[in-house]
Amino acid sequence: MKWLATLLLAFSATCSATTTLQWLDLAPKEAHQDIIFYSGKVSNAHRMGGNHETQYDQVRHMRNNPQMSKVIDALDGKQVRLAGYIVPLNIDGDVIDEILLAPYPGACLIAPPPPENQLVYVKLKQPIPMSQLFEPIWIEGVISTEHSDTDAAASGYSMMQANWQLYAKG
Fold first, then answer.
1. Is 44 inside any structural domain?
2. Is 55 helix (H, G, I), strand (E, B) or coil?
3. In this predicted model, what pLDDT tens digit does every residue of 103-162 receive, in sequence order?
4. Where would you tag: which of 21, 25, 129, 153 has the fewest CB atoms within 10 A of its CB?
5. Structural domains of the chain, count
6. pTM score of the predicted model
């Protein structure tokens, strides 16, 4: 009987374990190359300065590829942890309580946004001080494949009542 209790305890710990995700884990494998290429185009357009509308037009066209917005249904309801950058959606005084988590800094601000499956809409359990706006963070909580439309961009994933902390490798 004791072995059964130990087995159940180990099983429940495994079921509630937090999975650390990388950004490409949020997209189907067949879209990985396109997402990497897309991110490179956006980055190059930023670095070029001046007239970069041609680069942005190519990126906007790529974003219409259905693979670029497909989510991984198997992630729905999983406890996950993901590092990224803040795109503020709701600022209340000197704190932020609603964000898009993005794979790179400045996403959605001066360029076409990342693909939908590379953005996570997050409602935070505890707000982030404005002083942390430009810092990378970890977000942890239950991820949903619920699509969200915001003023900044559309996201393929959502997290409600998520915890956050400043990014540190590990």
1. yes
2. helix
3. 998 887 767 889 999 999 999 999 999 999 999 999 999 999 999 999 999 999 999 999
4. 129
5. 1
6. 0.85
